[in-house]
Amino acid sequence: MVAEIGPSNIEAAFLLEALKKGTRVDGRGIYDYRTLKIACGPTYGLAEVQLGQTRVLARVSCEVTRPFPDRPTEGIVLFNTELSNMAGPGLESSSKSSTQEVAISRMVERVIKQSRAIDSEALCILAGEKVWTIRIDIHFLDHGGNLIDAASIAAIAALRHFRRPDVTIDGEDAIIHDVRERNPVPLSIHHTPICVTFGFFGVDGELLVLDPSLLEEQVQVSSFTITLNAHREICALNKAGGIPLSANQIQRCTQVALAKVDEVNEKIMLAVKATTA
Amino acid sequence: MTGVKVVLPGDIIDTQQPDGDEQAVIRLGPGLVQASDEVTAVTAGILRSNSETSQWWVVGNKRRYVAAEGEPVVGVVAARHGEGYRVDIGSAHDALLPLLAFEGATKRNKPNLAVGTAVYARVVVANSVMDPEIECFNSHTGKSEGYGELAEGFMFKCSLGLARRLIDTKAPVLAALGKGLPFEVAVGVNGRVWVNAGTVQSTILVANAIRNSEYLDAKQCRQMVKELLEKQ
User: Fold this and answer.
1) Which residue ranges does the record assign to the K Homology domain (chain B) (predicted)?
2) Would the ipTM clear 0.90, i.e. be above it?
């Protein structure tokens, strides 16, 4: 397998020249997101997100397990990502996950788990005995850049779309009702964290773009991901390496991200509602 | 031909024309190979043929390039060796570009390409047991014939199906664009297209028009190009 050698010199030079003039090579403005399409279903907990050329599929499933001994009343949320060379020829096909995959998977996990988007206590069936384990599988189908945003949107849309079987508790016994017997119930989700990623270019990172494409990701000198929810709360910030950024730039990013989060949130709600009504 | 015949890799193709000459020499194009006495498809797509020239080929769409002799490709220099460059052409293995495979190159005077340089070249060796080999000139005439380093402009990737359609100089999107503004284009059938229209804005316009044309017919292409040119 040939390792991806990155963009050619003319691509990188042209991209920077275009950015200095305030345009991007795919014709977008610097604060434009690519076309975002979210499709949920046909089964519960399945969401496919298309962000320009990037495609991500998220699948949520559940099973009854024993809780961790130190957290007897909390359900378990597991994440699993699959970034194979199906998504792009430059990606490794080996079973060991690449650094890029680890970075994405940790970011999505941090965004959803540590912002307490999922009410893990609502996943408890019998304290210390039985809880729901929610598993989120994220498959990257096509790598067109900005996998983090697409993955987080797919994960949260799938979680919103998911329905788990209903449970009734009778003393020490829990009865899990078949979905044909009783309508399955949605998960208790407190808020919808959404990642918005920026790419920085130029010597001091003075040029910035929203939602970098694959080529832009390869040329950028730094990237910055900000995670917000619909209540305008910052859930996570992520800046892994790259050149340092000024406080002004971070403020500017936050302002732009605030506007984008509302749009994305609305799209997720529409997609979920359309298939669960 | 009546109807559309879809072939899959491994299908054996019956190249006998109903009223054709049995002795006619048939010529195989992209997607077909000869294995002993039979012609076999190696890609999925629609089988096409020209009964007058006895040519057969498969029209399909993929995103991963498999090198074939004689095809023009756009590659990116990945490394420099003693006797040549290693060039990424998007196939499973990098291609070899000998230092002397340029117009007017001699042992003392040969082009010096940096890693990351884009080149337009033609595949000369492509088989299953060797790395592909490319050259930036016609070895019979010694002329460059348009091949060589791509110095300015912009390169973008597209599907292999679109790239093959663009190779045709009558491709509707290129014709429509050509009426609106002057530009240069080098199409590699490995799904890489290089364009240069002088200014940044026009180059982006040309690149986007070509990318958008993938699923449009000739009339829609003209309309799309017209709208893009008006917006500029």
Assistant:
1) 153-201
2) no
Mean pLDDT of B32-55: 87
- State how far residue B39 is from chain A, nearest Cα, in angstroms: 29
Task: Mark which residues 200-259 of A lie under 8 Å from B by CB.
Answer: none
Average pLDDT of every residue of chain B: 89
A22 reaches B (C-beta below 8 A): no
Q: Which of B150, B167, B188 is the last residue before a domain boundary?
A: B150
pLDDT for B193 beyond 90: yes
What pLDDT is attached to residue B20? 58
Q: How far is B155 from chain A (nearest CA, A)?
A: 6
Instruction: Indicate the residue among B91, B120, B150 that finishes a domain.
Output: B150
CATH code of B186's domain: 3.30.1370.10
CA distances from B168 to B162, B174, B187 (A): 10, 9, 10
Q: Dihedral sign, CA of A198, B90, B44, B159?
A: positive
- Rounded CA gap, A111 and A238, in Å? 10
The predicted-structure confidence for B195-207, as pLDDT tens digits, reads as follows: 999 999 999 999 9
Residue from A233, A275, A23, A265 nearest A156 by CA = A265
Q: What is the mean pLDDT of residues B59-67?
A: 87
Rounded CA-CA distance B35/B27 in Å is 14
**Contact residues, chain B, for A89 at CB < 8 Å:** 64, 90
Residues B86 and B143 in one domain: yes
Closest by CA to B44, choosing from B32, B55, B36, B26, is B32
Count how many domains chain B has: 3
Give the range of the structural domain holding residue B195, as residue numbers without chain letter: 154-231
- In this prediction the pTM is 0.87
CATH of A21-276, one of 1.10.10.10, 3.10.180.10, 3.30.230.70, 3.40.50.970: 3.30.230.70
pLDDT at position A1 is 41
Cβ atoms A236, A222 nearer than 8 A: no
